[in-house]
Task: inverse folding
């Protein structure tokens, strides 16, 4: 059933190599041999988009050799020969003859040539498009860099900033929320008299108990002066929960119906912090434009693949660079810049400070709240937690303080929210944003 024809001519048309193989073919050899050597006229054709093949036609034998052949290229061989070479001539294709097959192969070759020329045109257009994307991207990066908000050198200090620990931490963490910020708010609310946090030794003292203490939270009913919306939201949540059960740091968010609170609180913190440390509206518009153009150029960069992978990767890299450099377009308002400088100076100063710099017990606890939000590592936290003074609002031994913060962070992390756990177990916060 593979030979078709009529009483005069027969045809054999065979796909020797498919274009659906998973891998390319490095070398290939195809030989087509007619039933017997003959001096009768026989005709052979090769159909393939590959340009790496050589053919040889000798009497009744046709061979194809070469390579490599890519995985999306096929090889087909075709022959028309006299039906007299067969024991029985086929009768299912009266149209078969050399001219008919030759016309089909010529039509395919013409169509393939048009396709090759079309791809070459598209590749040339893609090349030009890639250069345009690179030019626009690098131009946008250069313009953003030249017009970025220049912030003079920041000198370290341990003077408290004019924002809450959570807002300061949000700015230091590149305006991204994490559970250390909620922990900072919690301990700062306790420092300001709204809560008490008391260490309670665990009744379970078996060897398999991971923590030997629990930390009870008790609201006092006091709403501190100057509390912002995010702090009030957290305090009201704790007050409501305390009316129903005994609150511990480790189970503050373990109930299913409280799982969404942390996410809502983060949104409120972002809203409050952006109001306190604002960007200029026109700079935000420029930032969004640069960001949108950057993402659009990244998408357009995939059309450059037609020209080649090297130019494609360069184009994508340039477009990504424009996307990241969109933050050059953001400028603080004068008020926002003042807060930014305060926060960065305090963050650097707090990190570099020595334990002897914190002699005042009340100031030491306040510094501790900021350090929690910044996500200082254990070694850095020691200068705040060593000889921790006992107060009316905080009854935790210095050695247990890390356990308390970690327990709280685990409580937040185990709730079904996207809150980051960065820094909760002692990881340092990153540098300033903006």
Result:
């Amino acid at each position: 059933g593979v030979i078709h024809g009529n009483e005069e001519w027969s045809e054999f048309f065979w796909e020797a190599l498919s274009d659906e193989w998973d891998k390319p073919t490095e070398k290939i050899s195809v030989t087509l041999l007619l039933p017997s050597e003959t001096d009768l006229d026989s005709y052979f054709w090769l159909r393939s988009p590959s340009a790496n093949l050589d053919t040889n036609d000798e009497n009744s034998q046709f061979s194809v050799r070469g390579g490599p052949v890519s995985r999306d290229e096929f090889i087909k061989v075709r022959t028309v020969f006299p039906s007299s070479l067969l024991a029985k001539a086929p009768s299912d294709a009266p149209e078969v003859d050399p001219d008919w097959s030759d016309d089909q192969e010529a039509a395919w070759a013409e169509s393939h040539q048009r396709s090759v020329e079309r791809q070459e045109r598209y590749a040339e257009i893609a090349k030009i498009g890639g250069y345009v994307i690179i030019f626009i991207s690098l131009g946008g990066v250069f313009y953003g860099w030249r017009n970025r908000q220049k912030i003079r050198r920041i000198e370290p200090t341990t003077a408290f900033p004019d924002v809450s620990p959570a807002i300061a931490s949000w700015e230091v963490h590149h305006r991204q929320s994490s559970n250390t910020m909620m922990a900072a708010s919690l301990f700062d609310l306790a420092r300001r008299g709204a809560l008490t946090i008391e260490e309670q030794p665990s009744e379970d003292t078996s060897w398999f108990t991971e923590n030997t203490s629990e930390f009870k939270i008790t609201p006092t009913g006091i709403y501190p002066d100057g509390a912002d919306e995010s702090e009030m939201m957290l305090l009201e949540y704790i007050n409501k929960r305390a009316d129903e059960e005994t609150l511990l740091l480790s189970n503050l968010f373990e109930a299913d119906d409280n799982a969404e609170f942390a996410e809502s609180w983060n949104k409120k913190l972002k809203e409050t912090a952006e109001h306190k440390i604002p960007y200029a509206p026109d700079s935000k518009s420029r930032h969004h434009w640069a960001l949108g153009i950057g993402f659009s150029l990244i998408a357009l960069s995939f059309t450059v693949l037609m020209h080649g992978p090297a130019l494609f990767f360069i184009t994508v890299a340039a477009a990504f660079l424009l996307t990241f450099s969109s933050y050059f377009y953001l400028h603080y308002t004068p008020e926002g810049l003042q807060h930014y400088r305060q926060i960065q100076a305090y963050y650097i100063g707090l990190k570099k400070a020595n334990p002897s710099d914190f002699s005042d017990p009340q100031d030491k606890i306040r510094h501790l709240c900021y350090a929690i939000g910044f996500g200082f590592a254990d070694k850095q936290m020691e200068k705040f937690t060593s000889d921790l003074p006992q107060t009316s609002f905080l009854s935790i031994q210095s050695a247990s303080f890390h356990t308390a913060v970690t327990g709280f962070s685990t409580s937040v992390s185990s709730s079904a929210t996207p809150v980051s756990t960065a820094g909760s177990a002692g990881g340092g916060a990153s540098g300033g944003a903006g």
Q: What stands out?
A: DSSP finds eleven helices and eleven strands in the chain. The radius of gyration is 37 Å.
